[in-house]
Design goal:
The complex is a heterodimer.
Chain A lengths: L2 H5 L1 H35 L2 H16 L2 H15 L5 H26 L3 H9 L4 H31 L11 H12 L2 H33 L1
Chain B lengths: L4 H40 L4 H15 L3 H14 L6 H27 L2 H9 L4 H16 L1 H14 L11 H12 L2 H30 L4
Helix pairs in contact in B: 1-2, 1-4, 1-8, 1-9, 2-4, 3-4, 4-6, 4-7, 5-6, 7-9, 8-9
Classes of the chains: A mainly alpha, B mainly alpha.
Chain lengths: 215, 218
């Protein structure tokens, strides 16, 4: 029964490495986008604030798959050629960047007002106040929801298989076409995602506990 | 970039044909996962440890694997078993299984938000455990979880686009065929995105109205 899975394990693990790479790259990029959009939303002028709002609205209302299709079908007509892998990473990062923006915005807003006041009373202002007082506390609050968004992102990377990028889901589909053993193979694919996401969710819960000790 | 609006108008019936399937699948999946989530949360909070453990394992399993892989598992798996499901049925089943897990967690948050004193008060009035649950706790819990439920409903509407990959002719599927045939990528995908935005805007506005209607007055 499980021979099929064992025989194709090396290929699946190769796919798993690609999935990890895609996830890590797009999570890093999404975090940068998230912080930038959150800051623009909170402290930007009305124009950038409106732009951030439109960005969030579109990303929350349009499916990731449609954005991926749009990227792969529309971009060639504009003459921009970023390559399949980079394109996938950028689209995933843009999509989940919107969710990250919400995470960071909520985290900055949930730093107690008294901390800002205390810092100002000590003569801090502007960048100094943000860097020394607000950001370290906000990052601690943002930890658990950030990890949750990363879990969504890892699962989201499976969609790039539909637009033809080779990662673990695509590897699974290829093996099934050859072996006609969908239960074993897709079970194996699911196990790969489960291991990654379950570790992340344990880590998230551990972070959550640490945060709740402080408060 | 110049958009050909005539092209969009000409092909609008195709999009709407797909939109009907998207809406059908969304509505069915949301309803089924609401019911399934209630079953899962009942098991999750049951006094029996084995049942609670099984439900927890189930929730972890469906929430930590992609819904696309679940769809492929069910779609191709059912064919091997000799009882092939249609893409629509496989998609509906996968979405119900996954989102039932999410819904169960949402319900649980709502149940935990109801004060323990109300449970004790119900017990003191001589109600049984299931009566306290169905008469006192759940009606309040459900009213409290309308906002996270709205979020999950939007996620589900977006996830219906995935069934295009198991050959269900919904909106994204039609859009892809149309692009393959006409190469009018801008027109097709901008229309598609606008349609999804419109559906989600309408659904979230409707659910926000519901939220205000059922909010527990303080």
């Amino acid at each position: 029964m499980l021979n099929v899975l064992l025989a194709n394990l090396p290929l699946l693990l190769k796919g798993a490495v690609v999935t990890l790479y895609l996830s890590a790259a797009s999570a890093a990029l999404a975090a940068v986008i998230g912080v930038a959009v959150a800051l623009l939303q909170l402290y930007g002028d009305p124009v950038t604030r409106a732009a951030a709002h439109v960005y969030l609205y579109v990303m929350r209302g349009v499916p990731l798959l449609v954005l991926l299709f749009a990227m792969y079908y529309m971009l060639p007509y504009t003459g921009i050629d970023v390559g399949a892998t980079a394109g996938g990473i950028i689209v995933i990062a843009l999509y989940f960047g919107a969710f990250m923006a919400e995470v960071f915005r909520a985290a900055i807003l949930s730093v107690p007002r008294g901390q800002w006041d205390a810092a100002r009373a000590l003569g801090m202002y502007g960048r100094l106040l943000m860097l020394i007082v607000v950001v370290p506390q906000a990052l601690r609050i943002a930890g658990p929801p950030f990890v949750n968004t990363c879990i969504m992102l890892v699962k989201g990377t499976s969609l790039v298989s539909i637009v033809g990028l080779w990662e673990v889901t695509m590897a699974g589909r290829q093996i099934v076409e050859r072996t006609l053993a969908p239960f074993q193979v897709f079970g194996g694919v699911a196990a790969v995602y489960f291991v990654i996401c379950y570790c992340l969710s344990r880590y998230g819960r551990w972070l959550e506990k640490r945060v709740s000790y402080v408060h | 970039m110049k958009l050909d609006f005539n092209f969009i108008l000409r092909n609008l019936p195709t999009f709407l044909e797909g939109a009907v399937v998207t809406l059908e699948l969304s509505a069915l999946a949301i309803l089924c996962s609401l019911v399934w989530g209630l079953v899962v949360v009942t098991a999750r909070t049951a006094p029996s440890r084995a049942l609670a453990l099984a439900a927890t394992g189930y929730i972890e399993l469906v929430r930590n694997t992609p819904v696309l892989v679940q769809m492929l598992f069910i779609y191709f798996g059912s064919a091997v078993l000799g009882a092939p499901l249609s893409g629509f049925a496989a998609g509906l089943l996968a979405m119900t299984l996954q989102n039932g897990g999410y819904m169960a967690e949402i319900y649980r948050a709502g149940i935990e938000a109801v004060s323990q004193r109300q449970v004790e008060a119900g017990m003191a009035l001589g109600m049984r455990r299931h009566e306290v649950m169905s008469i006192v706790v759940l009606p309040q819990a459900i009213r409290k979880v309308v906002p996270p439920f709205t979020n999950q409903a939007i996620v589900m509407i977006k996830d219906t686009s995935l069934v295009s990959s198991i050959s269900v002719a919904e909106m994204t599927f039609h859009a892809k065929l149309l692009t393959d045939r006409t190469a009018a990528a801008y027109e097709v995908f901008l229309t598609l995105a606008a349609l999804y935005l419109a559906i989600n805007a309408i659904v979230s506005a409707a659910l926000r109205l519901l939220e205000r209607r059922v909010a527990i007055p303080t």
